[in-house]
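User:
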Amino acid sequence: MSQETESTGNPIANPDPSVLDRLRFARQDVAAKLPPLRGQRIAYLLVSPFFVLFGLFLAFPVVYTLYLSFFEWQSVGQGNLFWIDFGPFHVTVPRIAELQFVGLSNYTRLLGDGLFWQSMFNTTYILLIQVPIMIGLALALAVALNASFVRFKGLFRTAIALPISANIVAYSTVFLLLFNEQFGFVNYLLSQVGVSPIAWLTSEFWARKTIIAAVTWRWIGYNMIILLAGLQNVPQQLYEAAEIDGAGRWEKFRYVTLPQLRPVLLFVVVLSTIGTFKLFAEPYVITGGGPTNATITIVQYIYRQAFVHWNLGYASALTVIFVALVSVISIAQIRIGGDD
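Assistant: Predicted structure:
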């Protein structure tokens, strides 16, 4: 039989060709009545909102920050920068600020700025300790939750990833209370086992460790989710082949899991490095950058120069150096950890 039938034995109704022809002719008639699209003008018109928003909220701030780094900010701008007459209406662009050109003075100033180097040291110190610990714990949790014998995987994954949804200021305030020297819950637990209270927030050594603990707690679940997704994409045939060759759990992890996770691990390392360099809310809320500037980060120092001391030109120069430094480190990580 040339006519297909369903499992019930009833023939499948084919659409009437005359109906399809009428629909096609009707669509052609409608298209013929519409004005012709000349060239690619309509395409550029449709995507123009993106370019407008991109220029206003991304391109202009970046370019203006670079421009401002060569000036000293004096005050809020007075008057108009220029205006364009369109006949029935005109557009006026106000002067943003009163500036004084200082050349490279803002860049040479940071070379002798001790607090700038202190903030860079603090940020690097947190980075070198926090990122390896966080990624190591995230990888261990991802491997454990990817095991076939683990029950209630969904519950554990949700619980570990839940800190991601916490508000940064809210969870930083919680850590501020937990690690309070007088009435913090952490020191209370330590006192129950005979340990003297620790000056978590007033000691330079312990203040940095408190920031590291807070950042690790919040972002370990985020990195675990990414690594877990990478683990689930590792072909099972590779593990089966390794078992045939007599490989144990450690050999399979070393020679199968890690090489297959290399791109994902690289992505996590680069993302965590950039995130740690951008650290601001945790030290701002928990320690305020103290004690004695022991936890002030580079972003917090830029904020202080820009919006506390109103050194907007110097803050812009710091931002340019900061972006260049993060870009160089990220590119180096990709070159070193990427494929040959």
